Amino acid sequence: MANVLIINGSPRANGCTAAALAEMIRIFREEGLETTLLQVGNKEIRGCIACRTCGKRGKCVFDGDPVNEAAPLFEKADGLVIGSPVYYGSPNGNLISFLDRLFYSTSFSKHMKVGAAVVSCRRGGNTASFDVLNKYFTISGMPVASSTYWNQVHGFTAADVQKDLEGLQTMRNLARNMAFMIKAIADAKEKYGLPQVERAHFTSFQDGK
Ligand SMILES: Cc1cc2nc3c(=O)[nH]c(=O)nc-3n(C[C@H](O)[C@H](O)[C@H](O)COP(=O)(O)O)c2cc1C
User: Is the dihedral of CA 159, 160, 162, 163 positive or negative?
Assistant: First the structure.
């Protein structure tokens, strides 16, 4: 059964982001997809120290926080949903630390795993946060699922989000589109195989030219 890994980057396990993600989870189940929810926003997660130990070790140098725990779940997942509250116009800093280390420390292919970002805010900063999260997908060969409008809900509490009918509808449509893409990609993989990925060049102008 196809599996979607869902990351809640809020410190509040039952807050607004959780309400948006719950709406998606309900649809994933209806669509016959398995879901795994990881609550990371309430954990102590340090930032990347650029030690590059992961290159030799195959996992992050820091054990004991959710990054190395999430890695095998991400590897087997067919889709990844990242949800975050908006903090000063950005995703939660804890979540950014988690995602930087998760994406940087894992060498397995993320190619054609479907991604979707969801943000929750009270008033503003949502689209800037949405952009930050989508970039993890688009530099990793992950197709991005879209919905009927912005992937966001508004509120300060989960009860507020229940009143954001358009936001919840957007979540349901997003989950349906994502389920469709996951199924279509699984079929296409069988029929055509995955597209070729070139890896010959790593151009960072180390020679100073
Ligand atoms: C530190 C902090 C910064 C915040 N910054 C913003 C902001 O820039 N824009 C906004 O609309 N809401 C802001 N909020 C409110 C939350 O983004 C909003 O209530 C969100 O829906 C909470 O989601 P959660 O319940 O899943 O944590 C902030 C909240 C906190 C705690």
Answer: positive
